Every structure is written in structure tokens, then in C-alpha cells.
Amino acid sequence: MELPFAESFKIKMVEPIFRSTLNERELWLKEARYNLFNLKAEQVYIDLLTDSGTGAMSDRQWAELMLGDESYAGATSYYKLKATIEEIFGFPYFLPTHQGRAAENVLMSTLVKQGDIIPGNSHFDTTKGHIEFRKATAFDCTIQEAFDTSLLHPFKGNIDLEKLEQVLRSYPRERIPMIIVTVTCNTSGGQPVSMQNLREVKAMADKYGIPVCFDSARFAENAYFIKLREPGYAEKSIREIVAEMYSYADMATMSAKKDGIVNMGGFIGFKDEELFRRATTYNIMFEGFITYGGMSGRDMNALAAGLKESTTFEYLETRIKQVEYLGQKLLDFCIPIQQPVGGHAVFVDALKFLPNVPREEYVAQTLALELYLEAGVRGVEIGTLLADRDPVTRQDRYPALETVRLAIPRRVYTNNHMDVVAVALKNIWDRRDEIRRGYRIAWEAPIMRHFTVQLEKLS
Ligand code: F0G
């Protein structure tokens, strides 16, 4: 008999979590104004709000904390991280930042001005926020296949090259400061970008003289999918695949809270020294001196170790198989999800799940709230609340997909927890016809409203 698959780690430290009653959850949700971001973490049993900064560090990473050098300038921890980033990504220059959006802030302060156009596969919300804040336009060139959740396509994160060329042809070079490729593409469901697509995007960018930036939060998960799904890569190591991926990038922003497996941190990688110099001024203003940015020395050490761990096949296989495990359970219950299952999360198709709830009443948010009520499981809406209003008309913009994302923290939960999540959704699925009303907005912020929005229940 073939031995079954099991995790590539054993557990050294645990943290208790608690179940609650339906009555408690109803009260807490009301107090939280039906916004899951407002819940106290202790009111949540299984927290799948995000895989960002919520992972478990390894014993090696914890050991590295003790070796951190907290010198203001020239810390050994900075040089350790610098060497690791150059080794893995091939960037000779880098700036540490406190997290991914800080890297975006620094890079966009350097490159983006009012009226600019920034095309990409599908920008993440903070990326879009930083672009729109500067009165520039984030333009998604998502492939059409990504919008059909039941279509099995191996690389739904790919950029539509025709859409991209259309943009590059329509605007002068100086209005397109960069193309951003998000690997894996969070917005379209944690879906990977193929090596071929990265290569073709770079060739097109070179033709028009425009630099390419990778939003790299889940770069290692992207490399894993290339190894498994793209012809010619099965025999290559994750490190070799990552090295080729980044041969097609001029720069990168990184939220180290994902594939860096640290609780806080980020960086910008550059190949061009001149651009690095320009960005340095903003980094010093917003984040900190060149050799620490927004990070403490110990955290830079832990990140260097995390990057080495996340680029091993054993780690990635354990990680992604757990996400697939949850996805398969849901499929077995006939629950509509984005397929194939992405790298960091399962995305439940809320429009198919709750067809009776009107679109104006925030369908995915309604499902996310039901899931919390059912079992104390916290997911997150990736739908109309997140898509926010059109910056010009101020009307809600309805994205093609309305999903609830169940993001799995790295090395935190067991498959027993995944079983609880799956059964909770199955129970809601069985009573889905009774769910006919959603929510209305009582208060919203002018930008990035989903974090702080307050809702009222409609009946
Ligand atoms: N880019 C991508 C693709 C992301 O998913 C995120 C964060 C960021 C940039 C910003 O990084 O949080 O370190 O400032 N995503 C988290 C999530 C918040 O839940 O998907 P950050």
C-alpha cells in the first residue's frame, strides 16, 4: 500500500481556540455592525479572514529572532536579508518596508503621477488604492476565463495579452509607469500566472519600453503551480522556477506576511540602481533608514529564514494540499467554488450560492456573515464592498465575481478544522433557499470602505 500524504512538519507549540454559541455570535455580530473586521479575534473559532501575517513561524525562524541585530544603520540582519533576496529573486538592490502596502506607497510615490495608467492582471485592493489615491487609473487585463468559476484553466491569473497591448498602444509611454503582475493573483482567486505569460508580458513591455513589477506576496505558491502544471517545469526546483520568473521582472513589491511566513514585513526589490536611489528618499521619509525600512533586525532575520523555507517543495506541497483538501470537501458537497482551487484560499461563488439575495444587498458579505453565525468561522467578502465605488460616479461597481474567500493561514490549522468549515458551509447550502435578504450600508469611508463599513440587516 502506498503511504498516505502527511504534513512536512510536527507541532512544537499550540494556542487554544474556543467555540461559541449562536446567541453569542448573533450579539457580537450586531455589535460589530455586521462587519467581520470589527470582531474581536477571541470571538472567532476558526479564522480564515486572511493568510496575511497569520502564519506560524518555524523553530528556525524563532531562533533567528534571538540573533537579530538592531543597529540603526548597517545591521547584520539587513545584510542577511539582502543576500537572501539577491539569492532567491536576483535583485541586487532592495528596501525593507513594514508591509506590502508600504512597499507600494514608496514605489508609487517614486513612479506614479496623476493621469497615469497602470495595467496588470488584476490589482489587489491596496495596490488599486495607492494608484487611485494618486488620481491614476488601475487597469485590469484579466483573462476572460478567470470570470467563469467552474472552468478548469491552469493559469487563471494570466494577463490577457491583447487587452494589455490595447492599453500600451492607446497611451503615451510616459503615462504608463509600469505593468504590475500579481503572482499569484489574489483578486481572481489565488490563481497562478504561467511562466509563458510572464515571459510574453516582459517581451511586450520591452517592446514598449515599460518596466514590469511583480506584486510578489504569494510568489512561491505561484512557482509551485508552474512546477505542477506547466510543461517543461516538473523537474525544475522551486528555486530555479522562482529565478526564471524574476528574470522577467524589473522590480517587485512584496508583502512578506504571506510567502515570507512572518507576521509583519515587506520589501521592494530593484534591478535598476537609479530607481532604487530615487525610491530610497521616499523609504527614508515613510518607512525608515535604508538598512531597516519598517522592520526590526530580528524580523528581517526571521524573514530571511522564512523565504528559504517557503521556496522548498516540501513546505509548498503541505501548504497547498491543505487548501485543496478544503476545496475538495466543498466540491463533494456540490458547493460552487472557484476552480481550480487557488494557492492560499478557497473562494466560494456567492452569486451561485445565494441566488435569491439581490445584488444591491451585498451577496458575498451576506454569505460571509452566515458562515460566522453558523460556526464562528470568519472568511472575507471579495465582492461589491471590496470593489468599492467608482472614483468618478461614486456609484457601487459590481465586480464580475462575488466571492467569500476562505484564506488558510500557513501551518496553523489542521484538516479537522477544514472539516468544520466544510460542514458549516454545507449546512448553509442546505437552507440557502430561505436566505433572501442581505444588508444595506449605514456608514462607509470615502476609500477602501470594506475595512470599516457599518451595515444594517434587511428583513
Ligand atoms: N498584494 C497582494 C497580492 C496582497 O494580497 C496584499 C495583501 C498586499 C499586496 C498588501 O500587503 O497587507 O502586507 O500591506 N493582502 C492581504 C489579504 C491583506 O488578506 O489578502 P500588506
Summary of the model, kept short:
The protein contains 16 helices and 14 strands.
Could you give the topology of this structure?
Elements: H1 22-31, E1 46-47, H2 59-66, H3 76-89, E2 93-97, H4 100-111, E3 117-120, H5 125-133, E4 137-140, H6 161-170, E5 179-182, H7 195-208, E6 212-215, H8 219-229, H9 238-247, E7 251-255, E8 266-270, H10 273-286, H11 297-310, H12 313-332, E9 345-349, H13 350-353, H14 363-375, E10 377-378, E11 380-382, H15 384-387, E12 403-407, H16 415-430, E13 439-443, E14 454-457
Parallel strand pairs: 1-10, 3-4, 5-6, 6-7
Antiparallel strand pairs: 2-8, 7-8, 9-12, 11-12, 13-14
The structure holds ligand F0G.
Structure, described:
- This protein has 459 residues and is an alpha/beta fold.
- It folds into two domains: 22-51 and 313-457, Aspartate Aminotransferase, domain 1, CATH 3.90.1150.10; 59-310, 3-Layer(aba) Sandwich (Aspartate Aminotransferase, domain 2).
- The protein contains 16 helices and 14 strands.
- It has helices spanning 22-31, 59-66, 76-89, 100-111, 125-133, 161-170, 195-208, 219-229, 238-247, 273-286, 297-310, 313-332, 350-353, 363-375, 384-387, 415-430; strands at 46-47, 93-97, 117-120, 137-140, 179-182, 212-215, 251-255, 266-270, 345-349, 377-378, 380-382, 403-407, 439-443, 454-457.
- The chain has a five-stranded mixed β-sheet with strand order 2-8-7-6-5, with helices on both faces. Strands 9-12-11 form a three-stranded antiparallel β-sheet. Strands 1-10 form a two-stranded parallel ribbon.
- The longest helix has 20 residues, at 313-332.
- The model has no long low-confidence stretch (mean pLDDT 97).
- Ligand F0G is lined by residues 50, 52, 99-101, 124, 126-127, 182, 186, 215, 217, 255, 257, 266.
